[in-house]
Amino acid sequence: MLIESVAALRARQAELSELWAGLERRVLVCAGTGCVAGGALEVHAALTQATEESALDVSLELSSCADRDGPGGTLLVESGCHGFCELGPLVHILPDDILYTRVRPKDAAAIVEKTLGAGEVIDRLLYKDPVSKEPRQGHGEMGFYAHQKRVVLARCGEVSPASLDSYLATGGFCALATALDTLTPEEVLREVEQSGLRGRGGGGFSTGRKWRSALRAREARPDSRLHVICNGDEGDPGAFMDRSIMEGDPFAVLEGMALGAFALGSTRGYIYVRHEYPLAVRRLERAIAVLRDAGLLGERILGCDFSFDLELTRGGGAFVCGESSALMRSIEGKPGEPRAKYTHSTDRGLFDEPTVLNNVETWALVPYIVDHGAAHFAAIGTERSPGTKAFSLVGKVNNTGLVEVPMGTTLRRIIFEIGGGIQKGRAFKAVQTGGPSGGCLPAEKLDLPVDFDTLTAAGSMMGSGGMIVMDERTCMVDVAKYFIDFLMGESCGKCVPCREGLGQLSSLLAQVTRGEGSESLLSKVESLAETMELASLCALGRSAPNPVLSTLAYFRDEYLQHIEKQRCPAGVCKALVTYRITEACTGCEACRKACPVGAITGEKKVLHVIDDALCTRCGACEAVCAFDAVLVE
Amino acid sequence: MNHDFSELEGILARYPKAPASLVMLLQDIQEAYNYLPCEALQQVADELKVPHSQVFSVATFYKVFSLTPKGRTIVRVCKGTACHVRGAQLITDECERLLGLRPGETADDLEFTLEVVNCVGACAMAPVVVVGEKYHGAVKPNRVRKVLGVKRC
């Protein structure tokens, strides 16, 4: 449906907001990648069928609620990621605030009959507190949600990402409407500058300043065009905030880009999404098509003198393309090799023209800032890092998933209050932030506030927001080697320090994991790391040694144990560990059956034995043992 | 390998005939044929008027492209950090053993290709194995055989 003017948009927003407010109930089936993998689409289909067979007044789209006589009714939709991926598929019922976890299609009939029909809560589907084992009814009773502040994720899990109507009903495009009829481009730009917003992709560079320099560069070259780009090449392993935003609230990203284009006088935008995120690609492509039909993208948007369109480019599976200059080469159809930083992309970026490239989360925050004002945004978080930040909290933590907190929240609060502590009651060892360019922080750093500058000072970095929690069963040498090997595979090979340095670092660390070498090997590692930091061409190479340096700084003893005592205290490095069955064994035969190479012998109710010569250290026995009788040391 | 290249015309028509379309075009060709046939690369170079060397350089830079045919089922073991700390290496080893393939290799009968990928962004379900289009979460070494649906060893 074409919306022809700002006034028409506002009228439509008002109409939809009223429908939204009149809804008696909303049933949200999480359709993020995690829950879809767990069968969320089948759950949605089963719920749809069960409601059709019931006498309940249920609609699948917001607009169809308008057809009925009175207000009210229930809206049943597939929503974006609710964030609590660990226990998916999730079904959230509002305003009752009932969260059902691990829902199966066969539960649909009970949910419709008991909860939607009779208002009863089904206890067995509720989340159980990991410590007290008590059931928790909804977000309000769960530490995971209660300690969060959702700004950029506010709509993820609340609305259907496919529905422009829901986006409009929840304040979507208010910012663009205000910009088009009451603000000048300069005022929008100043709002972003004054908000103090810093880029959420990792570097933490001031967004306002970036926009301003691109604008100046363009004014200096009147014949050039200015491009806006959204970097959706979320390559940091262990991070999926951007994926969830693109999948859960695609319109917010696109509205943010349109606002940026308005402020900067750009008519052309690009959104670059990694091909490993097929669902994000599909949802964004659809959202772009919907906006074109509605007249919110394209020529003369809302009948105003502002034209802007954008195209989606899929990445090709290269981590280095997350680097801005490499990403631009990739959009140009070339290999994604970065270039030296003395030329800024704001000056000469895509097609050698002024370019503003921001991360998904950054763009998605722009409508919020324009809507609520710079001062409101700046009041959240800390003085130098205003606003909130989304993190993917994963690894050995009880509640894994997507979280958003004000900047300045401590690591302890995120990991223990929101994350619910470490799995299996084990001890916390380290938290890795900042992806392959970041570092590992030990327990004594848990009370650090999380913001751009504090994390950098501690030897890690904010990065895009991956937060990987490690426990006593994680080997820090192995983690360092993991990141180095990761980067070795991803180095584009253009400059020597990065290409050769990573290869050498990897082989030195491999020696440590085999218990070889001496302490002088560690000083070799350090001097190599220093050279790479100084001499590499782009940020990938310059920051590559961070995981090694931070683990050496905080966990040097663990390196020394490998080298001097040929011991891996965490029981990870295969060359240094043996698997043994302890007296706790009940002789249940589970491990004997699970062992893929037949290395375990033993009869029922008799202590089992592992033949070390045959054992491949695959871990199958430990995984199946219900009595913790398999000892890895 | 002989192909029917009639589909290629359709793919070429999807994008403007400009060098900037190169990566997108190759992605669609990869999707259609499961690899980049040499004949297709030549035709792309001619149509877009870019040097063959540049097409080759792009085709070998990005991981998504393959110059040899991939298997009908692609097994992707995620090796993101979250999967790594939850034991992805053990899962990779078990996949290698069961399929008799090293990461990046394709079986002679073109049934399977084994790949180790950086991060599929499903970190909360770690460790993750994607078989074809289906995501499997919280995979343990002893479940790999079932996840892959293989009998052979």
Describe the fold and architecture.
The complex is a heterodimer of chains A (633) and B (153). Chain A is α/β, with parallel strands linked by helices and 633 residues long. Chain A has 5 domains: 6-142, Glutaredoxin (3-Layer(aba) Sandwich), CATH 3.40.30.10; 172-373, 3-Layer(aba) Sandwich (Rossmann fold); 388-474, Ubiquitin-like (UB roll) (Roll); 477-564, Up-down Bundle (de novo design (two linked rop proteins)), CATH 1.20.1440; 578-632, Alpha-Beta Plaits (2-Layer Sandwich), CATH 3.30.70. The N and C termini of chain A lie far apart (65 Å). The mean pLDDT of chain A is 91. In chain B, α1 packs antiparallel against α2 (22-33), α2 runs antiparallel to α3 and α3 (38-48) crosses α4 (52-61). Chain B has 2 domains: 6-61, no CATH class; 73-146, Glutaredoxin (3-Layer(aba) Sandwich). Chain B has a 4-stranded mixed beta sheet, with helices on one face. The model of chain B has no long low-confidence stretch (mean pLDDT 89).
Features:
heterodimer; A: 633 residues; alpha/beta; Glutaredoxin; Rossmann fold; 5 domains; 5-stranded mixed sheet; 24 helices; 20 strands; 40% helix; 14% strand; globular; B: 153 residues; alpha+beta; 2 domains; 4-stranded mixed sheet; 7 helices; 41% helix
Task: Tell me what portion of residues of chain B adopts beta-strand conformation.
Answer: 5-15%
CATH classification, class level of the largest domain in chain B: Alpha Beta
- What is the helical fraction of chain B, as a range of percent? 40-55%
CATH fold name of the largest domain in chain A: Rossmann fold
Main pleated-sheet profile of chain A: 5 strands, mixed
Q: What is the molecular shape of chain A?
A: globular
Sequence of strands across the biggest β-sheet of chain A: 2-3-1-4-5
Distance between the termini of chain B: 28 Å
